[in-house]
Fold this sequence. Notes:
The chain is an alpha+beta fold.
Amino acid sequence: MWGAPRPTQPYLTNAHGAIFLLLVQAGVPFPLVRPGKCEVEVPVVQTRDARTRFPDLVVLKPEHLPLVERRLTVTRDMPPPRLVVEVVSPGKSNRQRDYDRKQAQYEQRGIEEFWLIDPSLQCITVLHLQGERYEEADQFQDDQVVTSPALAEFNLQLSWQVQLNLKL
């Protein structure tokens, strides 16, 4: 293990882990923050859309905990998660899926906030649900501290380069 080569793109595997730790450090209860393994049922907006998504990170609501005890799936008959985070994948079709398809599905699912972490643009875009549509709350780059309308009660101190250490 010690002699293993370092990954060439650490942000693909470490960004959601770093955000997980920072959210918990900010006071978001540990059981509510689910990196990588939480399945979220979403509406099919276009014919080829997936019926479920596995966001890189999900922040649940307290009422989800007994509902996902046996299987970590937020079904369509449950309240939507509070926040989903996606690390934008490289490639034109992947970027379109992350920026357009997932955004439309999360929006229609009623998920309060959606973060896009884009390593190629070196930014975090925070989208907040206003009525039935997402509006860009802000876009954060360099050492700007990320603010989250959905997590306003927590002391969130998250920045693109300094806290995540994701310099490309």
